[in-house]
Design brief:
36% helix; 13 helices; 2 domains; five-stranded parallel beta sheet; alpha/beta
């Protein structure tokens, strides 16, 4: 109770709502489905045909420059493998609604989707853990998916140890590799994977190359000042015809020379006299 000497205590402000942590744009707007994936139509169509026909490969390798979406595509592909809803398990590329395992796969905490960074796990012992674990089936999802990022960083012994499992994996195992240096991956590994080359997104708008700009403004429409500047930039040697071009466009003389008594190239003096009497444009 407050009296005249002690006023009421100031009201305690209500606790502010917890703010979501800041995310960079690449993570904030990361695609979550193939419908949101832009610029990779060839890969999406190939995967759609494979899923529709039921002929899904067991190993994939995604290559491209940095920032093109290799890891994001690998996670979406793992979500497509393990899609499950109320009607049952059926791998699909069309996510009409979020499946049972989708949220855990997107957040990277699903027990059956294992992501490994080959840049920090390069040895044969790291691959031996994968070889020992593929023998056991998945815990809750239809498939056990292994995503190995920067796979080109694996050692030679690690690649050799993975070959047998990569060639004949169990039915419940899928491998997805991502790399920026496809030339460093052994051919024995590439031959066992389905490869997809991810491309950069082309910028919108008309091309801005010099050739296209010159085609839009032909020299006949140039201003006098521009023509004068263009002539000033050309070197004198570029305006003269080179000896090679003179020889190329020089008309071939006839086999008989009128300056020679016999009408043939009988001697050096005859050739010189014929050259002296030939037209100027023949001599260059």
């Amino acid at each position: 109770m407050a009296d005249g000497m002690f006023p009421d205590d100031p009201p305690v402000p209500a606790p502010a709502a917890a703010k979501s942590p800041y995310l960079v744009l690449a993570r904030k707007y990361r695609p979550l489905s193939f419908a949101q994936l832009i610029g990779q139509d060839a890969m999406v169509q190939t995967l759609r045909n494979a899923f529709k026909s039921g002929r899904i490969h067991h190993a994939f390798i995604l290559t491209g420059v940095r920032g093109v979406g290799k890891t994001t595509t690998a996670r979406i592909l793992a979500r497509a493998f393990n899609y499950e809803d109320e009607t049952g398990r059926h791998p699909t590329l069309d996510f009409d609604k979020e499946g049972i395992h989708d949220r855990a796969i997107i957040e990277g905490r699903h027990v059956d989707v294992v992501e490994m960074d080959a840049a920090s796990n390069t040895g044969i012992n790291d691959i031996r853990e994968i070889i020992d674990s593929v023998k056991y089936g998945p815990v809750s999802a239809p498939y056990k998916v292994y995503i190995i990022d920067e796979v080109h960083m694996l050692s030679t012994a690690a690649f050799n140890g993975l070959l047998k499992t990569l060639e004949e994996p169990p039915e419940h195992v899928k491998f997805i590799f991502a790399t920026t240096e496809i030339r460093k991956v052994p051919i024995t590994v590439l031959s066992r994977c389905q490869r997809f080359d991810l491309r950069r997104i082309a910028p919108p708008g008309p091309p801005t190359s010099r050739a296209s700009s010159r085609s839009r403004t032909p020299p006949s429409s140039w201003s006098p000042a521009r023509r004068k500047a263009r002539r000033a930039t050309r070197s004198p040697s570029s305006t003269r015809r080179s000896p090679i071009r003179r020889e190329r466009w020089r008309p071939r003389p006839s086999a008989r020379c009128s300056a020679s008594p016999t009408g043939r190239w009988s001697s050096t003096s005859s050739r010189r006299s014929c050259a002296a009497t030939s037209p100027a444009h023949w001599r260059g």
